[in-house]
Amino acid sequence: MPLLSYPEAAKQILGFAQTLAARTAETVPLAEAFGRVLATPLHADRDQPPFPRSTRDGYACRAADSNTHQPLHLAGQVRAGQSASSAIHPGDAWEIMTGAPVPEGADAVFMLEHAEVLEPADASPTSVRLREPRTITAGENIVPRAAEARLGDALLLPGARITAAQIALAAQCGYPALSVYKRPRVAILSTGDELAPIESTPGPSQIRNSNSPMLAALVAAAGGEPVILPTVADSEPAVDAAIQSVLAAFPDMVLITGGISAGRFDLVQDALTRAGAYFTFHGIAIQPGKPVAFGHVPISIESPYPIPVLALPGNPISSAITFHIFAAPLLAALSGNTTLPPRFASASLIGEWQGKPGLTRFLPAHCDFNLSPRVGIIPWQGSGDLAAFARSNCALVIPPDADTLPAGAAVQILLFDSF
Ligand code: AMP
Ligand code: MG
């Protein structure tokens, strides 16, 4: 049977993600809301701007008066934070600062740079005119009251991820705290007889467990709360016991690494099946990450929610790539985020790529994200090469039918951040 294609697998993940929803909400101070997902709408508590706002330092006037280029009587000054003491009279101008309320009756602001201040004999500037040949139209350099938002408007909806712009908007609307969805708890279980803890000196045939901390970082960056569990040996009783105890804690999602290929000691899929998981797919036509499996533990008397389970291949780069393309969208859905990763972008390829067609490849690459992004493949020794991976900032996506990509080709890249 041919392996499932990447687009088909992505569609199945998306379909499942759309059945997931965020759980409860909590309130966090605005300063801690960065990266969280909004749980209730954010409303404007007043018109924005609350007054017709000058966008320039200059002179508030009636456009028709200014366009005569006759001197306008300087009737007063409005600073930001103040209001004009009266409405503007015909033939008058008010000196005004950026951010100040435009006096009633004025319909334009001409810029300081376009003004000629006329000094009378006693040296007090009492009149100003718009320099010829400049003219001004009504509305220029003024944002009308409520042009940005009206009192009561919903400016952000539940499901919006909070970044700096949303924090600024919340501050403008008087929200010192925000209601956000609770972070989904993601259990991380690494399997493998060869795994040694970070702080140990590994034996001659051992390697340190790098997947657990890497996945914890990816989970946290994608808005989840990682829970790293002790590593598990490649024995049926050990894998069974570990999986059962993971599921008994009812995490929102489970990530398991290693033990999912076709080797004699790859025991994870059978153990998950014994624990009640149903698989949607096992093995995708991608590289790295081909052995990845996706399933879920269905709703039961004990568990009111299905628990998505991703069994990621143990090779670190395979784990990372399959996280980005399959785990991140599930996690975003569980976080209540309405925009699901993965995110792709286009770039132009530095150098040429040649290879065998048949698989969608996600090759570690480095992109210069300037105005015309250029991406280059990082030479690597395969999906265990963490030194190469650490030099990458994205993955070059190679479509399954390609055997050559010429230098300068327009290519797709997989972004490693989940915003
Ligand atoms: P597996 O998927 O279990 O066949 O493992 C594939 C490769 O990934 C092997 O070379 C493992 O030693 C390596 N590997 C598995 N788990 C981890 C881990 N947690 N951290 C680093 N490397 C791992
Ligand atoms: Mg293994």
What does this structure look like?
This protein is an alpha/beta fold and 419 residues long. 19% of the residues lie in helices and 28% in strands. The chain is built from 8 helices and 28 strands. The chain has helices at 6-17, 63-66, 164-172, 211-221, 236-248, 268-274, 316-334, 386-389; strands at 25-29, 42-43, 53-54, 58-61, 72-78, 92-96, 108-111, 115-118, 127-130, 142-143, 154-156, 177-181, 185-190, 195-196, 207-208, 225-228, 253-257, 278-282, 286-287, 293-297, 307-312, 344-350, 353-354, 360-368, 374-377, 394-398, 404-405, 410-415. Helix 1 (6-17) packs parallel to helix 7 (316-334), helix 4 (211-221) packs parallel to helix 7 and helix 5 (236-248) packs across helix 6 (268-274). It binds adenosine monophosphate and magnesium ion. Magnesium ion is lined by residues 192, 234, 258-259, 314.
Summarize this, please?
This protein has 419 residues and is an alpha/beta fold.
Structural class comes to alpha/beta
* Low-pLDDT residue intervals, each spanning 5 or more residues: none
The first-to-last residue Cα distance is: 36 Å
How much helix is in the residues? Answer: 10-25%
- Enumerate the distinct ligands: adenosine monophosphate, magnesium ion
Task: Name the overall outline.
Answer: elongated
Strand order of the largest sheet: 7-4-6-5-9-8
Number of H- or I-type helical stretches: 8
Radius of gyration: 30 Å
Residue-averaged pLDDT, rounded? 96
Percentage of β-strand residues = 25-35%
Largest sheet descriptor: 6 strands, mixed
